Batch of 3 targets.
Target 1
Amino acid sequence: MEAARAILKKIRRLELKTRGMVDTAFGGQYRSVFKGRGMNFEEVREYQAGDEVRTIDWNVTARYGEPFVKKFTEERELSVMLLVDVSASGNFGSVELSKRELAGEVASLFAFSAIRNNDKVGLILFSDHVELFIAPKKGRRHTLRLIREILFYEPKGRGTQPATALDYLNQVVHRRSVVFLLSDFQAPSFSRALSITSRRHDLIAIPIVDPREEELPDVGRISFEDAETGEQIEVNTSDRSTRLAYAKAVEARRNAQLREFRQKRIDTIALRTHEDYIPSLRAFFKSRERRLMIR
């Protein structure tokens, strides 16, 4: 009972935090940068000065002997899919939040932005296989269930395979959707799955990094254990060349990953567990707004 109350309290606290951000900061921006799938026919009305000639309904015009135009409205409703990495490496955190907890906060913010705009939101949790799929729906109760699963689901797998989640998404979600992929991307190459998904959906990749993963501390000889494979290795962290080589390898891997996202025209929001994620999200929204204005 105590555990259940603690879970509910955490979910409620996260709801209040993220909904507050949606109401004060991101609600309008979300609506402006994520568009519906097209235009819906609404009605036929008489032609007025300034109307596009291309919208004239010639059949109705011929019937009544006066020009009439078709009126369309934007199809606003979207489907938003949250693909969240729940592999063992996501439990790591050297600061207040683990990578999985940060993913949960950001996913919650997008989920509440979606339902505030009357959009559907769904969820795929993945490790080295798809752990859980919840189909897109609307409503607060549905969104709270998604948040509970993101934060407290106990995965069976330990590894990270984004390709599995992306392939599954493409099999079960046929309508073009906005897809947020949250992961530390400590995984084998998934280039093919990225290419296919980015063509079918509006895919946004969100790499999540903890600062302790980017550099080795100078603390002498220590043993490291891979959270996903259990493999152990002893490293002499007092060796400066070892620390530099590690930092360079991490940077090269991250740059290669970001380069691939750019080549495939996939937007990215890079997040770090020790930094406020709000500026990164603001920068993302502003960047998309500028691109839409140019178009």
Target 2
Amino acid sequence: MTESKSKIGAHLTKSQKLLLLASAASILLWAVPYLRIAILPLIYLNTHFHELAHALAALASGGIPERILVFADGSGVTPILGGNAILVGSAGYMGTAILGSILILSGRAEKKARTALKTLSILLGLSLILLVRGDIAGVLSALFWIPALWLLATSLKGDNIKFAVKLLGIQMSLTAFQAVLTLFEITATTDAHSDALIMQQATYIPDVAWAFAWVIFSLVLTGFTLRKSWSSREQSS
């Protein structure tokens, strides 16, 4: 068992090991309440796209997203009229997992990585104009990330931009871990609703099952795209 692990580690480059360590650190920081402030900007970014996924799923199923709210603690909500409750409820974590995996794959080539960052900036800008309302934290974080993503796209080059895109992709993909942590925090402290609780009401399947299903989905998808990304020859153009 130890020999197998060492062989796997030996096949990873220094950059790949650093990417995994940075990703693990971001998840650990999120899991510890007093340390979350260290990665709060990343949490805001994840929440923006999580809520945008809810909004797009609502539109796709005939509903109307009223607005996107991102709060100072990193949580968010998207009030929706109509739409398919199951599709909308599951879109947040599944949407960020899919988007994160697309970012990971785009990190194979510098040109694709640059395009991906610019696309994120544009999507965030459109969501700010059309949907983000209310809480000042959400508005300010969007105003921060729109130029920040564009600046990363235009200033980083070579391995640096590919590393940055993959790091964003991994931590966005694995936001499903928040589903489990958030569920237990809400259950222990408040009567507020999480995505998993909403799905339980819509399907009668326990909220814990939904939370862990999203974690498994995100882990499998992230692992697959990472292997595909690392097994393919990376390009500089």
Target 3
Amino acid sequence: MPADAAQPVYTAPEPISAGGPEVVLTLGAGLAVKPEYFGSSDYGAGPSFGVRLNYLNFGPLNFGSLNGDPASGIGLRGSFRYVGERVAGDYPELDGLDDVDATVELGLGLGYRSRNFDAFADVRYGIGGHESLVGELGADYKIQPADRLTVSLGPRVLLGSDDYTSTYFGISAAEAAASDYTAYAADGGVVSAGVELGARYEINDVWGVQGAVTYDRFMGDAADSPIVEQGERDQYGLRIGLTRQITLDF
């Protein structure tokens, strides 16, 4: 799916270390290969980026872990996703449809983490191209085949509100009149279901390399959209990049 994966922020509490860092972040940047738009059968390459909050200490607020390895258990997490713009004029098959601006999705969720298993449930709100709610569920089974290397595999489910599915999969009467499509109302619900295979290698305590291969299949009204039917219901993705841990001591 043409979006950067949500970056988890686990918040399992641990004792405050007097005089220690107050914020520890992991920043990621790299390259992503993904469909040109939701439902496209053509692929393109573009930037991939993300941020993960490892540790936060502001007075009584003490979340996360200084060593980047949160304790097992349930905790609060942040959720982020970027969805690129869809310019109908760039694709002959979308001629007559409205453009959709780029969107930043921000939200929160609950996550469970242990040595060999993670799970999460997130809710995000879009700012930009779509201003609506989306939810994401996922889980990962993890193994450590070598020192500093973690490999994970697990399912993903994306849910969207009526406004979300209408933005990317619906066709208004005005769009139908200006295109070869018929009008289509897309209701919210389960948008896609799939799986993600990821890997992370820690070069040292500051730098790392991470990547993932994703597969998603549109479901429900998203799958029945004329936009998807003229394209491809199955969507694949690949991303790889560097990560760097940043410590901020105020």
